[in-house]
């Protein structure tokens, strides 16, 4: 039987302890391991005769059930499977709606970061059925990485109109929404090629977390499932996110397979991403997402599959077409964007060298004044999100404390053209010694220590 719904109080619900305990009752366990239908589909309707009377059909093949030697009825296998799947889907639907109700009714600011993939459109549909999109009990949030498919941007607008809500869209810091040229100017069009971890941080993790903070999120709703792969094989419907100090997190589809998801989309004609019709089981950035199989022979068109659905529906296959050609720095294949992993809270939404002897250059004009001042100095061009800038923060601060010249910082990611032409900058950090005659000399070594900086300054100013 479905789990009994407990009474929740906001004061002790933050970790979802009661909800987790409830969802791990026998019915939920059977649902995960064997499929939810197993908990109910094998309960006799009223008697074997009643069931057989309903499903019997003349046949010379298939399964047979016999009450005795004189009475034998053919078993309609396809009808039984169809009914079992329907029962399973109803159970999963009730379970997901229970999770969403638990989240939206017990928290003040439930937020659903919507990536518009198959599971997310199901959650959007369920939130609409529960009335949470229109009454404001749940806010939909999207992250624009500036590398999404054009179809994704169009689809956001389509579901906004269909369900009557407005999504909150967040993107890389300091860049207007949907302004790709501004992003390229500030961060570089090839950031993802140069440093995939920094790209994830700038375009996904930081705007994601900033969105949650801006919306005062106290419960995050998410579309992850156990079926998506071993990294997610043990998630529960309720858990604590590894961000924001342990944000309450709800995964309403935790126990769904991808087949369940598309069955549900077909049953309710749920609006879904147009690229499913072009062979994409999951949709991420256009730069590293491909159809599966690559020839696009499996498609979901007009609420039904064309071609063999197995390449999509097999275990851990939904995201096979994601992060194609990308590797983590340790050489392992990339499977996560960084948003949902432990440590994702360690983004740098602060500046560097906010205290101490490092002086700040406020503008491009001020930087030119330092260069033309006739006074020797050290100017480092940096970006606060850059892990290499972060890595030299302590050494550069210590260097400034004992240096005989003025030591400056100048944030260059917002004025890339200027720092490229005037301050030798192709990447961050770039440390320059400015001579009295205005010559700017770049420090080319990656040894960023107090001693190394001192030696370079002494050499250039001798």
Strand-residue fraction? Answer: 5-15%
CA-based shape: elongated
* Oligomer state of the chains in this structure: single chain
Category from helices, strands and their pairing: alpha/beta
Low-confidence spans: 1-66, 68-72, 341-348
Largest sheet, order of strands side by side? 5-4-3-6-8-7
Mean pLDDT: 83
What is the count of helical runs?
16
Rounded to an integer in angstroms, the radius of gyration calculated over CA atoms is 28 Å
Q: The biggest beta sheet, please?
A: 6 strands, mixed
DSSP summary, beta strand count: 15
Gap between N and C termini: 83 Å
Helix content: 25-40%
Supply database-style keywords:
single chain; 462 residues; alpha/beta; six-stranded mixed β-sheet; elongated; disordered N terminus
Provide structural commentary:
The structure is a single chain. The strands form 4 sheets. Strands 5-4-3-6-8-7 form a 6-stranded mixed beta sheet. It has 462 residues and is an alpha/beta fold. Strand 14 (430-434) and strand 15 (440-443) form a beta hairpin. Helix 5 crosses helix 10 (258-268) and helix 14 crosses helix 16. The chain starts with 16 loop residues before the first helix and ends with a helix. It is elongated, with a radius of gyration of 28 Å. Residues 1-66, 68-72 and 341-348 have low confidence and may be disordered. The protein has 16 helices and 15 strands.
Tell me the layout of helices and strands.
Blueprint lengths: L16 H7 L2 H8 L14 H8 L7 E6 L2 E5 L1 H30 L3 E4 L4 H12 L8 E6 L6 H14 L4 E3 L9 H8 L3 H4 L1 H19 L4 E3 L16 E3 L7 E3 L7 H11 L30 E3 L2 E3 L3 H4 L45 E2 L3 H8 L5 E6 L4 H5 L1 H10 L3 E6 L4 H7 L7 E5 L5 E4 L6 H12 L1
Parallel strand pairs: 3-4, 3-6, 4-5, 6-8, 11-13, 12-13
Antiparallel strand pairs: 1-2, 7-8, 9-10, 12-14, 14-15
């Amino acid at each position: 039987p479905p789990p009994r719904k407990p009474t929740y109080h906001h004061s002790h619900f933050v970790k979802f302890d009661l909800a987790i305990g409830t969802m791990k009752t026998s019915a939920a366990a059977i649902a995960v391991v064997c499929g939810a239908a197993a908990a109910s589909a094998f309960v006799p309707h009223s008697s074997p005769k009643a069931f057989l009377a309903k499903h019997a059909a003349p046949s010379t093949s298939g399964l047979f059930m016999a009450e005795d030697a004189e009475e034998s009825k053919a078993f309609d296998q396809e009808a039984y499977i169809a009914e079992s799947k329907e029962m399973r889907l109803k159970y999963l639907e009730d379970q997901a709606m229970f999770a969403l109700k638990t989240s939206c009714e017990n928290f003040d600011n439930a937020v659903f970061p919507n990536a518009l993939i198959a599971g997310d459109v199901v959650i959007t549909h369920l939130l609409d059925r529960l009335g949470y999109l229109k009454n404001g009990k749940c806010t939909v949030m999207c992250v624009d990485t500036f590398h999404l498919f054009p179809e994704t941007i169009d689809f956001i607008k389509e579901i906004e109109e269909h369900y009557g809500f407005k999504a909150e869209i967040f993107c890389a810091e300091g860049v207007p929404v949907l302004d790709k040229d501004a992003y390229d100017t500030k961060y570089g069009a090839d950031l993802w090629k140069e440093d995939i971890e920094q790209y994830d941080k700038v375009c996904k993790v930081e705007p994601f977390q900033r969105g949650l903070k801006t919306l005062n999120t106290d419960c995050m709703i998410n579309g992850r499932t156990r079926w998506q792969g071993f990294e997610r094989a043990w998630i529960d419907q309720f858990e604590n996110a590894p961000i924001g100090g342990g944000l309450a997190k709800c995964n309403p589809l935790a126990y769904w397979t991808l087949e369940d998801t598309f069955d549900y989309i077909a049953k309710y004609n749920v609006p879904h991403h147009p690229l499913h019709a072009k062979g994409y089981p999951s949709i991420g950035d256009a730069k590293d997402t491909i159809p599966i199989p690559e020839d696009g022979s499996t498609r979901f068109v007009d609420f039904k599959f064309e071609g063999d659905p197995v390449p999509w529906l097999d275990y851990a296959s939904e995201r096979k077409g994601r992060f194609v050609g990308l590797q983590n720095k340790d050489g392992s294949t990339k499977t996560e964007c960084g948003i949902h992993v432990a440590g994702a809270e360690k983004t740098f939404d602060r500046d560097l060298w906010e205290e101490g002897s490092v002086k700040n250059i406020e503008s491009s004009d001020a930087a030119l004044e330092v260069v033309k001042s006739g006074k020797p100095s050290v100017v480092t061009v940096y970006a606060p999100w850059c892990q290499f800038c972060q890595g030299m923060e302590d050494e550069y601060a210590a260097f400034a404390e004992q240096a005989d010249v003025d030591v400056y910082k100048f944030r260059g990611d917002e004025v890339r053209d200027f720092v490229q032409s005037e301050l030798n900058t192709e990447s961050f950090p770039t440390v320059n010694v400015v001579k009295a005659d205005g010559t700017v000399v770049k420090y080319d070594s990656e040894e960023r220590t107090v001693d190394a900086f001192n030696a370079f300054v002494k050499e250039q100013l001798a």
